[in-house]
Amino acid sequence: MDPRNTTDPDQDLPWLRSAAVVTRRIPHLVLAWSLDEPGRLGETVPVDRELCLGRGDPRPDDPAPRARLHHMRPGSLIARPPIAGARISRVQLLLEPRGEDAVRVRSLGRAVVRINGRPIVDEVAAIHDVVEIHNAALFVVVSRPRELPTTAWARFDFPFAGADPYGIVGESEAAWRLRAACAFAASTDRHTLLLGESGVGKELAARAIHGLSAVRDRPLVARNAATMPETLIDAELFGNVRNYPNPGMPERPGLIGEADRSTLFLDEIGDLPEACQVHLLRVLDDRGEYQRLGEARPSRSSFRLIAATNRPMDALKYDFLARFTHRIPLPGLVERREDIPLVLAELLRRAAARHPGLAARFFERRAGVLAEPRLAPDLVVRLLRHSFTHHVRELERLVWLALGTAESSYIGLTPAVEAELAAAAEADGLAAAAPATLDRDALVRALAEHGRSPTRTARALGLKNRFVLLRLLKKHGLSAATDGEES
Questions:
Q1: Mapping DSSP to helix (H, G, I), strand (E, B) and coil, where does residue 62 land?
Q2: What is the DSSP letter of 325?
Q3: What pLDDT digit, counting tens, does each position of 194-236 carry?
Q4: What angle do CA 315, 267, 286 make, to 5 degrees?
Q5: Residues 418-446: b if buried by 16+ CB within 10 A, e if exposed
Q6: Which of 7, 68, 285, 393 has the smallest CB count inside 10 Å?
C-alpha cells in the first residue's frame, strides 16, 4: 500500500458520508431582533470561515467574504437578501469560527457592538451569547451542523419562523428534531411517552402525533391523570356497565372505550398511582383487552396511548414504562434559545388576534394587514439570557406583564418585567444554596400539605419566595399548581 495514500477507504460508505454531514458542527449567528427587518427573525449566518457582516452587497474592499443570512431547514439552506439597516455599517463585524461553538467577533463599523450587554472591540462569543449591534440587530450564538439532516418525517409546509400546523414554533435544530420524532411516532401505532418540564408544550406534541397519524380524522381523547380521584380512576379509564356499582348509574365506555380506533392522551401520567399503572398493563399490550367495571367478559380497544410527564422516567413503574415504545424528550427554551424570539412573536400575534386594542397599539400595519409587533431590544436581550422554569408558559406570563405595564407603543423591559426576571435570577442562586434537608420527599410532603400551592408551600418551608421553591421542584422533577390552579 502506498504510504502516501492516507485516505480512509471507508469514508465514502453512504451511511458514513451522511453521518459526517450532520455531525460536523459549526457556530451560527441567528437573528433574534432587527429594527429595520423584523420579519427576518430566525435567519442564520453559518460561520464556517472568516466572514464580514455588513449592510448591502459585497464590495471589492471587503476584508473577507461577505456573510449571508439563510433560511435553514432540514435538507435546505436558502440564501436570503443582504442585511439592511441604516444603523449597520457596510462592514460592521468580522467573524471567525473558534471551534464548533464559539465565534471571534471584531467590531469594524460605527455602531457599538456588545456581547451580553458589554461593549467589545475584539472578543470571542460562546454558545448562547447575545451579540448586539446597538439599536440595529441582535444575534444569538448557537452550534449547528452545516446542514440539518433531511428526513422524510419532517414536514415544513408552513411559513419560515411561524407556527407549524400543530402549533409548534421554532426553527432550531432541537425544534426540528422534535418534529421528526413526533412524525415518526405518528407513522406507527405504538404507545408514546412525552418527557419534559412543565410548560414545554407536551400537549402540542401529543396533538401533532395524533394529527399526523392514520386516525387523524377521529377525535383525540384527552385527560389530565392528576385530576382523576384515585378511587375513581378505574371507572374513568375503563368505564362501567349500567347500574354498576350503584343502581341508576348510567353505562359509560370510559376513556379507553372512547379512544377506540383513535388516540388517548393522558397528561401528568407520573401522578398515576403505581397500583393504577398495573391495571393498565394488559390493555397496553397488542390485544388491547380490558374489562369495564361490572362486566364479566373482556372488551377490546384498538387505541394508541400518548402519555406525558414532567417527572424522571424512573418515577414510573418499570413494566408500565416498558409499554411505551417511543419516548420523546421535549426541549425547554434554554435548549433552544434561538427560538425564544419566534415564540415571543407568536404569543404576541395570538394576543393581538384576540384583542384588537393590543393590535392597534403595539403592531405595525402594512397595506392594511397586521405586521410585526413593536419590540424593544432590551426585552429581547433579557429573555434570551433568562433561565426559564416553566418555559413557554412562563414566557407567556412575562409577555402579558410587558403588555400590561408598557408606557408607550413599544413592548420593552418595563420595571415590572425587570423585577420579575431579577427575582427569578435571585431564586436560582438561593435554590442552589437551599438546605440539604429539603430533599424530594420533603418537598412532596410539603406540597401535599398545602394543596400544591407554590406560594403557601414556599412560605411554610421558610423559603424567600415561590421562585425558590419552583427551582427546587424543577431540580427534583416535581411540579406545583400553576398560577391559575392555586386554591
A1: coil
A2: S
A3: 999 999 999 999 999 999 999 999 999 999 998 888 888 888 9
A4: 80
A5: eebbeebeebeebbeebeeebeeeebeeb
A6: 7
Task: Look over the chain and give the mean of its residue pLDDT values, rounded to a whole number.
Answer: 90
Tens of pLDDT, residues 174-198: 999 999 999 999 999 999 999 999 9
DSSP-assigned letter for residue 39: G
C-alpha cell at 198: 412543565
Handedness of CA 27, 30, 32, 33 (dihedral sign): positive
Reduced to 3 states (helix: H, G, I; strand: E, B; else coil), residue 437 is coil
Asked if the domains 25-145 and 173-329 are classified in one and the same CATH topology, the answer is no
Cα distance between residue 262 and residue 327, in whole Å: 19
Give residue 356's identity as a one-letter amino acid code: P
> Between the CA of residue 201 and those of 65, 88, 204, 339, 384, what are the distances in Å?
40, 37, 5, 13, 19
CB 167 within 8 A of CB 303: no
**Residues facing 94 on adjacent strands:** 52, 106
Q: What is the rounded distance in angstroms from the CA atom of residue 132 to the CA atom of residue 401? A: 24
CATH class of domain segment(s) 173-329: alpha beta
State the architecture of 25-145 in CATH terms: Sandwich (2.60)
- Tell me what pLDDT residue 484 has: 46
Please report which residue ranges of 433-465 form alpha helices under DSSP H: 440-449, 454-460
Half-sphere exposure of 207 (CA within 13 A, CB side): 11
Residue 93 in contact with residue 105, Cβ under 8 Å?
A: yes
Whose grid coordinates read 392594511?
368
More confident position, 114 or 154: 114
Per-residue pLDDT reduced to its tens digit, 67-82 = 999 999 998 999 999 9
The three grid cell numbers given for residue 308, joined into one nine-digit string: 406525558
Match 378511587 to its residue by C-alpha cell.
231
Rounded to a whole number of angstroms, the distance between the first and last alpha carbons of the chain is 78
Q: What stretches of 226-354 show up as alpha helix (H) in DSSP?
A: 233-238, 254-258, 274-279, 318-321, 340-354
Contact present, 380 and 344 (Cβ < 8 Å): yes
Q: Cell numbers at residue 18, please?
A: 451522511
User: Domain residue spans in the chain?
Assistant: 25-145, 173-329, 432-485
Cis peptide, bond prior to residue 245, ω within 30 of zero: yes
Which spans in 355-390 are helix H?
Answer: 356-362, 377-385
